[in-house]
Amino acid sequence: MISKEIYSGDTHQWFMFGRDPSKPDKIIDTNQYMIRTHNNALLMDPGGIEIFSAMLASVVKQVPINQIGHIFASHQDPDIISSLGLWDTALSDAKLHAPWLWEGFVRHFGMEHIEYAPIVDQGGCLVLNGVEVRFVPAHYLHSSGNFHVYDPVAKILMSGDVGAALEGDDAPMEVEDFEEHIPKMKGFHQRWMPSNTAKNDWIRRVRELEIDMMCPQHGRVFTGDNVGKFLDWFERLDVGVAVQ
Predict the structure, then answer these.
(1) Domains observed in the chain
(2) How many alpha carbons lie under 13 Å from residue 229 in its C-beta half-sphere?
(3) Is the CB of residue 64 less than 8 Å from the CB of residue 40?
(4) Where is the Metallo-beta-lactamase domain (predicted)?
(5) Per mean pLDDT, which range of 27-31, 119-123, 240-244 is the poorest?
(6) Contact between residue 32 and residue 23 where contact means Cβ atoms under 8 Å apart
(7) Which residues are within 8 A (CB) of 25 and not within 5 positions of it... i.e. 6 or more apart?
(8) Mean pLDDT of the chain
(9) pLDDT, average across residues 48-69
(10) Distance CA 206, CA 149 (A)
(11) Band (14; pLDDT cuts 50, 70, 90)
(12) How many CB atoms within 10 Å of residue 78?
């Protein structure tokens, strides 16, 4: 599994984990993210049960296990949070920040020690050693209870399934040619995003943020002008196409 520092500042760093060639063949590749402060860490969409051992090995190279105090789950899907039961045994004192809507479902993955910290529909924030991150509503994109994470200092948006592309383990980590990348995203977004109304609400929210990097759960990271290009493309895209 590749581990890459994608932001480093005076108060905190961002890490991206993914492109795991050792995962089972039919398991979709996922990106996991982490924010590290001087003595605390937030794991975001930490992955499925199948990649737990690779994730744990990668994470502890960057932060002591006893400093991981927080986990974030954007929604309930197994590819992002079915490893919860294993993290529950590995972490001594942690909170899971996830949509209030999915608590009864997420607990099926196993939660004896981690505390569930429900996020209300309007969103919220978390402060790690003075570093504030925001939980941005992204409902119905594609889950009915869904959030993204925005860091106003690093100017990074962890965008969950928005911006996702389905590619091989050897794909680059960053979008280089946006037009060339569109075919890798189009079908996914048209089928998995069910509502143009929800899509446009999210775009309105996100255009108010200053974003240098947009980091989806699958595929490549968007940087610089490609963030705006994605928003323009997504705004034009008709979604929810399975029902006509």
Answers:
(1) 2-236 (3.60.15.10)
(2) 15
(3) no
(4) 29-218
(5) 240-244
(6) no
(7) none
(8) 96
(9) 96
(10) 11
(11) very high
(12) 14
Q: How many CB atoms lie within 10 A of CB 93?
A: 10
E strands, the chain, where? 2-8, 13-18, 32-36, 41-44, 68-72, 95-99, 115-119, 124-128, 131-137, 147-151, 156-160, 213-216, 222-223
* Non-local CB neighbours of 230 within 8 Å, separated by 6+ positions: 163, 178, 214, 222
Residue with tokens 């929810």: 240
**pLDDT on residue 243:** 64
Q: Which helix (H) or strand (E) holds 204?
A: helix 196-207
Q: What pLDDT, in 10s, does the model give residues 186-223?
A: 999 999 999 999 999 999 999 999 999 999 999 999 99
Alpha-carbon distances, residue 36 vs 49, 62, 90, 117 (angstroms): 23, 8, 18, 19
Return the closest-CA partner of residue 21 out of 9, 33, 12, 29.
Answer: 29
CA angle 205, 174, 30 (to 5 degrees): 80
Percentage of the chain exceeding pLDDT 70: 99
How many contiguous H segments (helices) and E segments (strands) does the chain have? 7, 13
User: What distance in Å separates the CA atoms of residue 176 and residue 98, rounded to the nearest whole number?
Assistant: 32
Q: Give Cα separations from 229 to 17, 205, 206, 211 (angstroms).
A: 25, 16, 13, 12
The answer, yes or no, to whether residue 244 has pLDDT greater than 60, is no
